[in-house]
Amino acid sequence: MERPIEIAVVSGKGGTGKTVLASSLARLSESRVVADCDVDGPNMHLLANPTVLEEGALAGHRIAILDAGACTRCGECAKACRFGAVRERDVPEGWLYSIDLLSCEGCAACTMVCPADALHLTDSSSAAWYVSDSSVGPLIHPALAAGQKNASEMVRVLRREARRTAARGGLRYVIIDGPAGIGATAIASVIGTALAVLVAEPTISGIYDLGRMVDLLERLGIKAVGVVNKSDLNPEIASDIAGYLSRKWIPLLGSIPYSDRVNEAISAGKFVVDVAGDDPAVEEIKKVVARILEAATGEARGAAGA
After folding, report:
1. Are residues 67 and 53 in the same domain?
2. Which helix (H) or strand (E) holds 226?
3. Using CA atoms, how far apart are residues 233 and 101, in angstroms rounded to an integer?
4. Are 141 and 132 in contact (CB under 8 A)?
5. pLDDT, tens digit, 9 for 90 and up, residues 92-132
6. Model-level pTM?
7. Between β-strands 137-143 and 173-180, what pairing exists: parallel, antiparallel or unpaired?
8. pLDDT 10s digits, 258-285
9. How big is the CA angle at 207 (ends 202 and 210), to the nearest 5 degrees?
10. What beta strand segments (E) does 31-93 contain?
11. Which of 16, 105, 117, 176 is packed most tightly, with the most Cβ within 10 A?
12. Cα torsion angle, 193, 283, 46, 145, sign
């Protein structure tokens, strides 16, 4: 069985229309698994109506737990903590201490200085991942608790499960809805993929953040294509983006105009490409999806023949 072709849809900033394109790619492609790797704000499940078939857990980072009954209220833990995780509160019985779990870094300093052995480290509440059946076929998606610090590890788990699911089903593509930005989760989402689809908007910040994403992909050696969303809102900057991509030898696969109907579909929790009637934005999205699949297949063939 050939390795599935992994396509990551990414952007240098949030709000560019990345998930609109990723969900359209998932809806229109065949023989695919979809992995929602935007782990801090997953939303593919809102469109795809998943039915969970399998689930797993990912242990969180270590955090300190205080046994209030054993605590002598000496305050040594508060002095030792450099992250402000030990909170103090004046009560009639004296100073009461507690641990702010969102601030705790699991360094164990408090446990080492506590004379009453009232503090110990434990795993934080686990993050969960799911393999589901959905309206776009197999969907791999996360549930990451607030404050969890293992987001990039969750991305690696989601991609691993997506590849396994594709292999079991003999499916050709893994569609990755990646996070915005260039942080650790973005790196984990794109590394090793056949193709990264860059979604940009025609704004000053949009072109700047696009440049940061291009720099990242160049460092990682990832092939890229570009798409400009809402291109008619600022044709001058849209033209600048096209020129920048050309200078970087990155193909521009399409420029999608703004559409109220696209926004209405999103607000209604519907796939944009299911909008009936002739809509220029929807028609362009469909063409872009076809070009993405063609480009990804070409890159995969080129890599196999190298």
Report:
1. no
2. strand 224-229
3. 44
4. yes
5. 666 788 888 778 888 899 999 999 999 998 876 668 899 99
6. 0.82
7. unpaired
8. 999 888 888 888 899 987 668 899 999 9
9. 120
10. 32-36, 51-58, 62-66, 86-91
11. 176
12. positive
